[in-house]
Amino acid sequence: MASIMYFLQSSLDRYRHISWNTFENDMLLKGEVSKVIIIPNREMVCVFLQPGAIVNGRKAADPEHFYYSLKVSDVNKVEEKIRNLEKGMGIPLGQGTSITYERRSECVPVAIALISCVMLGLFVFMMKSLSSSISTFNPTNIAQTKAKYVRVDKIAKQGRGITFKDVAGLHEAKVEIMEFVDYLKRPEKFKSIGARIPKGALLLGPPGCGKTLLAKAVANEAEVPFLAMAGSDFVEMIGGLGASRVRDLFKDARENSPCIVYIDEIDAIGRSRGGQNVAEGSGEGEQTLNQLLVEMDGMGSTQGVIMLASTNRADILDKALLRPGRFDRHILIDLPTLQERRETFDLYLKKLKTASPAVNYIENLAQLSPGMSGADIANICNEAALYAARHKKKAIDVSDFDYAVERVIAGVAKKSTVLSQMEKKILAYHEAGHALVGWLLEHTDVLLKVTIVPRTSKALGFAQYMPKENVLYSKDELFDKMCMAMGGRVAESLTFNTVSQGAQDDLSRITKMAYLQIRELGMNDKVGPVSYGVENEANVKPYSMYLGQVIDEEARILIAKSYKATEKILRENKEKLRVISEALLEKECLSYKDMEELVGPPTFGKKSPLTSEWDEKKND
């Protein structure tokens, strides 16, 4: 409405009324008048001023959008009076103010009035509609909104479901989760010896490891109703609606028992109550959680409904939700091992058209992807197929897979970044320092590739290693890792007698490893075999200020020790450092095979588990 009134006001107030004295003394005699338009049929005289004109000591409005209305008794005598004034000012005839006559339609004010009436009527209509909708609004209608779950088992029966054959690895998890299906199908076998049927299983693990995928497979294999719902579907701003949807979900589940209920991302409604969020504890989230706890194991709970849920934030879940009787089993679905990665690549490569049999790629790809989840592996296979199709290949070969692995780990090569010759040289020596130190030490990761081509991940250089999948690391192994990370900084210092900011990420990792050994792993003689975790929620260190100073000092000593050890290695092998750096400047990328040709085999024996054919075909 305010915008309507502004429009009408602006259309009617483009002029201001002035008297003849104001026009004569403040405008005409001062030479501020640009033109005068006389409208006889409306008895109106419009006065337009020069741009920047001053009236009564103030700058006049923009003449393009504003004019002055002159009050006169007879418009027919206006021109004569103006010419007489100009004659008295000594202005020759024909050089005075421009005076024109116009005839304007009377429909303009009428049109404005009509528009005003129409828009006012529209506003009244909208207000009446809004008031009627408010009067008919009933909050109970929203509260009666049913839970919107999905019958995954029906989708599976249509042939679009996922089976255990589509889930590679996860052998232990499959066995555990299928036990719950067995409980539903043959409960007498367990009840006959007094066993209690478990109420639920919680799937835990990092993102992309197959928790939801495994739940979909269970829906297809169980042959019982499978009701799936996301945790966020319970969350609403209206109080009580989440709890109502929980009741609806379990009501339908009991009517279809034996049945499985699955809640994805249960941390959306299962967050721990109390703590620092006591003020928020009585809100919608806690009411929803309380209703879920009652439905799973409360006074009115019944048998025949098994609960499955998944989350990657088990640390924030309420303890009442995790206890036996609600979630009896906590099934960890972790990052895949080497064997599980082989199976996962075998699963996805069968769907691709490869240049040679898929079995020729599986072992090397599994070795190249430590620490990757099943989703990462699927992404590698898809990126390789996209890259091959982009280059109009008929099949995917080794170079496509190598590109895909590199893209997932470090991002795409950013060749638009322009480095000066000196910056390239510093970068080459930096990466060569990392590569050479890792090549000469015993407990370092396998170097697969080193390059000085900038990446979209903001890394100027990139070295691809194959981390050892050890469960335990010794003190010597951690120290060698610190030395390898220090190699770039030391190489810059020895070669250029100065350092750059390129080692910031390396120094951050070195500092974390130093504090890890001293504060948490008990690997320092002075601090002793104690373990202090990081600061708690109140940001209070669990040790004294004196011990904190000792830990800081020992961390600096350990870092300095790794610097000296790295410096000694690079001083003794300065020629090898120069050879690797010059090769990087020339080729921009060196492989394991290139490193062997430049500086000989690694000091402690061959490290690369990749077949020689992989490097040969990749470089073709």
From TrEMBL:
GO terms for molecular function: ATP binding; ATP hydrolysis activity; ATP-dependent peptidase activity; metalloendopeptidase activity; zinc ion binding. The chain crosses the membrane at residues 107-127. It is a multi-pass membrane protein. It is found in: Membrane; Mitochondrion. Residues 197-337 form the AAA+ ATPase domain. InterPro entries: AAA+_ATPase (IPR003593), AAA_lid_3 (IPR041569), ATP-dep_Zn_Metalloprotease (IPR050928), ATPase_AAA_core (IPR003959), FtsH (IPR005936), P-loop_NTPase (IPR027417), Pept_M41_FtsH_extracell (IPR011546), Peptidase_M41 (IPR000642). Residues 600-620 are annotated as: Disordered. Its cofactor is Zn(2+). Keywords: ATP-binding, Hydrolase, Membrane, Metal-binding, Metalloprotease, Nucleotide-binding, Protease, Transit peptide, Transmembrane, Transmembrane helix, Zinc. Gene3D superfamilies: 1.10.8.60, 3.40.1690.20, P-loop containing nucleotide triphosphate hydrolases (3.40.50.300), Peptidase M41 (1.20.58.760). One of its GO terms (biological process) is mitochondrial protein processing. GO terms for cellular component: m-AAA complex. In the N-terminal section; belongs to the AAA ATPase family. This is AAA+ ATPase domain-containing protein.
